[in-house]
Every structure is written in structure tokens, then in C-alpha cells.
Amino acid sequence: MELELNLSDFYCLNKNCPDYGMKGKGNIRVKEIYGPKNKALLRCNTCTHCFSETRGTIFFGLKTPDDEILRTLALVPEKGSIRGTARATGHDKDTICRWLDIAGTHCQEITDYFFQELELSQVQIDEIWSYIKKRKKT
Amino acid sequence: VTDDDPDECGDVYTLTAMESETKLFISHNEGSRSADDATSFECRFSKSGTRPKISANLNFTTIPIYL
């Protein structure tokens, strides 16, 4: 099986490893291919720590193909509702909610990382009012 | 909204903040019109290196407000 994986894009995730956070050190090797999605289990030769290639991404631990997850998440703002997306894609609404939660948390972490020491000139603030209430049972 | 309804029901205000030049979406917050929500919304600005000029569109009139 041919892997489309650039190992220089990965670094050891073990915080106690001397090569933690450093890419292109040549210490990452593919240990094995695992799971129904044929993902690579990577191994750090420095500290022997093993981790999945999807570790730290929104795809970690999910069985659905990556493309399908991305397509479904992209449909949510297009459809405007989770139930509509569920009907269009065939996935359960609770599954989509879980994916949204994972993706949202991940995006928040990325945003918090990059949004530091911003040089802001002028910021425009807006307020959108909405109302949440259950419909009465008929 | 009645007392029997969950806390999520009722008025919800979504506050958004966008940088005027780059259109960078800096901060958003969903909640009520409370001090806690305003503080949560504002916390992103405190991370910025410079104190930005704030403008809000109130009644179709842009009023610059300085923090």
C-alpha cells in the first residue's frame, strides 16, 4: 500500500521528548497502518512514542472517511440546519452535532493560537438579536 | 418564555467584531445582554497588541467609541 504521507510534516507529540515540536528532524517513521481508514501509526525514534497521523486533528477517532466529514460540515451552513444536513447526507443529526463540536473546539484552539498580539486599527461591532423558544405542541 | 422553559430559551444576542481593513473576524459571543457576556466578548481585544478604535452601527449611524 502506497502512503501519501510527508513525514517531515509531523513532529513528536510527546512533550518529554527532546524533539517535541520540531519538524524535519528525521525521527518520525511509519510503524504500521491501522484501522478501516488505513491511517498510519507513526513512531518517534528518539523517544519511541507512537501516535496516529490524525492525532490533533478533527479526524482523530472518527470512522467516517475524512472527505465525507468535511463535505458534511461544509453543508451545515449551506443548508442552514442540522436536520437538513442530516437528511441530505444520510448521517444522524447527533453525529453531525458531535462532528461540529469537535471541529468547533479545534477551530477555537487554532484561533486562540494565532490571535495573539494583533495590530488592530479599527474594529466594527455588530449585534444580532434572535429568539430561542420551542414550538408549542399541537 | 416561562419559568418551566430551559435557560437556553428566550432572547439571544450575538455580538460580532470585525477589523475594518482586513475584515478579520476577531470575536463573537452568543448570550444575553449582561456584563459577563460583554467581558467574554471583549477578552479577545485584550490580547491584541494595540487598543483598537471601536465603531458600532447604532440606528444606522456609526458612532466611534474608544475603549
What does this structure look like?
The complex is a heterodimer of chains A (about 140) and B (about 70). By secondary structure, chain A is an alpha+beta fold. In chain A, about 30% of the residues lie in helices and about 20% in strands. Chain A has a 3-stranded antiparallel β-sheet with strand order 1-2-3, with no helix packed on it. In chain A, β2 and β3 form a beta hairpin. The radius of gyration of chain A is 20 Å and the shape is flat. With about 70 residues, chain B is an alpha+beta fold. In chain B, β1 (about 10-20) and β2 (about 25-30) form a beta hairpin. The longest helix of chain B is centred in the middle third of the chain and has 12 residues, at about 35-45. Chain B has a two-stranded antiparallel sheet with strand order 1-2. Chain B has a two-stranded antiparallel sheet with strand order 3-4. Chain B has one helix at about 35-45; strands at about 10-20, 25-30, 55-60, 60-65. The radius of gyration of chain B is 15 Å and the shape is elongated. The interface between A and B is medium-sized, with 20 and 30 residues. β4 of chain A pairs parallel with β3 of chain B.
Labels describing this entry:
heterodimer; A: alpha+beta; 3-stranded antiparallel β-sheet; 3 helices; 4 strands; B: 67 residues; alpha+beta; two-stranded antiparallel sheet; 1 helix; 18% helix
Q: Helices and strands of chain B, in N-to-C order?
A: EEHEE
Mean pLDDT of chain A: 88
Instruction: Enumerate the spans of chain A where pLDDT stays under 50 for 5 or more consecutive residues.
Output: none
The string of secondary-structure elements of chain A, in order, is EEEHHHE
Q: What structural class should be given to the helix and strand makeup of chain A?
A: alpha+beta
Q: Considering residues with a beta carbon less than 8 A from a beta carbon on another chain, report the largest interface and each chain's count.
A: A-B, 20 and 30 residues
Radius of gyration of chain A: 20 Å
Assembly status: heterodimer
Main beta sheet of chain B: strand number and arrangement?
2 strands, antiparallel
Average pLDDT reading of chain B: 74
Question: Roughly what fraction of the amino acids of chain A lie in strands?
Answer: 15-25%
Proportion of strand residues of chain B: 35-45%
